[in-house]
C-alpha cells in the first residue's frame, strides 16, 4: 500500500480507516486492511484511532454557529483522556495536527459523511469496561451483561418502553437476557449482523473485522445486513469475518468463555492472533520484528487476563519467546538458545 500514516490524526481522516472502523466492506477498507496486515505495529495505531472515534458520539446535524469551538475542545479533552487510560501507548502529537484532525471530524459530520454505529437509534447511556477490567451490569429490564476488557455497550433511549430492547456492542460481552411477560425482543446490534432474542444466554465478539456469537442457552436468530436470517440453537458458534459469509464452527465453549474467569486460553493459536488478543485486552502496543515468527509461530497455555506481566512470563516460559520493552513498545522475539 502506497499511503502511510505518520500518526492517528492522519489515520482518522482516511476513508478506508473510517469504513474499516464501521465494519463496511468497500474498496477503500480493503486497501486499509492491506496496510493493517503489513505490519503488526499498525494494529496498535488502528486500535488507538478506532477507540478515539468510538468515544466521540457525533450527532448528524449541522452545528449551530458558535459550537464548533466547543466541539473541538471536547475532542481535545477526549484525546487527553485516551492518554491517561492507555499510558503504555504514546499518543502525544503536535497540537496543530490534532486541531486539524478535529476540524476534519466536524466537517465530515456536518456533511453527513461520518457514519456512527449509533445513527439508527439515539442512545441514553453507555457502559464500558476499561483495559484489563471485567464489568458486570444489570440492565433496566433485569437482564445481565458482563463486559470483557476494552468493551462497551450503548442502550437505546426508552429501552424498556419501546417494542424492542436494543443495545449496541463494541468489544466482547456475555448476555443473560431476561424474558418479559409480553415477549418483547432483545436486540444486540453489531457491525455485521443483529442478534435477536427474547430470553437466553450468549456470548458476542464484535472487534475489528471479526464478529461471532456463541449460544449457550435458548434460541436466537441472526439478522444479516442483506436481510437474511440464520437461526441458532444451543452450542452453535457462528462467525463472520470481513466480506465472507457467516460460518458455523465447532468450538469448546469453556475456551470461548474463559475471559469471564479472567483467563485467556491459547491452544496452538497463531502468534499474531494471540498478540492481537493481548492488545485488545490491555491496550498496549506490541511489535514482532520477525514477520516469519509472527506468521508461523503458535502459542499454547492458559494465562491470566488481568495481569500483563504474569501473562508475558507464562508465554515466554512455555513457548520459547522473549518479551522486552523498548521505547514504550513491547517487542516479542524468539528466545535465543
Automatic annotation (TrEMBL):
The chain crosses the membrane at residues 98-115. InterPro entries: FecR, FecR_C, Ferrdict_sens_TM. Pfam families: FecR, FecR_C. Residues 263-329 form the Protein FecR C-terminal domain. GO terms for molecular function: sigma factor antagonist activity. Keywords: Membrane, Transmembrane, Transmembrane helix. The keyword Transcription does not apply. It comes from the Bacteria. Residues 128-220 form the FecR protein domain. This is Putative anti-sigma factor.
Amino acid at each position: 500500500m502506497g499511503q502511510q500514516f505518520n500518526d492517528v490524526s492522519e489515520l482518522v481522516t482516511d476513508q478506508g480507516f473510517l469504513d474499516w472502523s464501521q465494519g463496511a466492506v468497500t474498496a477503500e477498507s480493503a486497501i486499509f486492511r492491506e496496510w493493517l496486515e503489513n505490519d503488526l505495529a499498525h494494529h496498535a495505531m488502528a486500535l488507538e484511532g478506532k477507540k478515539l472515534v468510538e468515544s466521540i458520539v457525533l450527532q448528524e446535524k449541522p452545528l449551530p454557529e458558535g459550537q464548533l469551538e466547543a466541539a473541538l475542545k471536547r475532542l481535545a479533552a477526549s484525546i487527553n483522556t485516551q492518554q491517561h487510560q492507555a499510558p503504555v501507548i504514546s499518543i502525544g502529537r503536535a497540537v496543530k495536527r490534532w486541531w486539524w484532525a478535529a476540524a476534519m471530524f466536524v466537517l465530515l459530520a456536518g456533511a453527513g459523511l461520518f457514519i456512527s454505529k449509533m445513527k439508527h437509534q439515539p442512545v441514553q447511556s453507555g457502559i464500558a469496561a476499561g483495559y484489563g477490567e471485567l464489568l458486570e451490569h444489570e440492565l433496566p429490564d433485569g437482564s445481565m451483561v458482563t463486559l470483557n476488557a476494552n468493551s462497551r455497550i450503548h442502550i437505546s433511549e426508552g429501552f424498556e418502553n419501546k417494542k424492542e430492547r436494543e443495545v449496541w456492542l463494541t468489544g466482547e460481552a456475555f448476555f443473560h437476557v431476561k424474558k418479559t411477560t409480553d415477549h418483547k425482543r432483545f436486540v444486540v446490534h453489531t457491525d455485521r449482523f443483529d442478534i435477536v432474542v427474547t430470553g437466553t444466554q450468549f456470548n458476542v465478539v464484535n472487534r475489528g473485522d471479526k464478529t461471532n456469537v456463541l449460544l449457550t442457552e435458548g434460541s436466537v436468530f441472526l439478522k444479516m445486513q442483506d436481510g437474511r436470517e440464520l437461526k441458532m440453537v444451543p452450542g452453535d458458534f457462528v462467525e463472520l469475518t470481513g466480506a465472507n459469509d457467516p460460518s458455523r464452527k465447532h468450538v469448546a465453549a469453556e475456551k470461548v468463555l474463559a475471559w469471564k474467569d479472567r483467563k485467556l486460553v491459547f491452544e496452538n493459536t497463531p502468534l499474531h492472533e494471540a498478540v492481537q488478543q493481548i492488545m485488545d485486552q490491555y491496550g498496549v502496543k506490541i511489535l514482532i520484528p520477525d514477520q516469519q515468527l509472527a506468521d508461523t509461530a503458535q502459542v499454547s497455555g492458559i494465562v491470566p487476563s488481568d495481569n500483563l506481566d504474569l501473562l508475558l512470563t507464562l508465554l515466554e516460559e512455555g513457548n520459547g519467546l522473549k518479551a522486552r520493552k523498548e521505547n514504550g513498545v513491547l517487542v516479542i522475539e524468539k528466545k535465543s538458545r
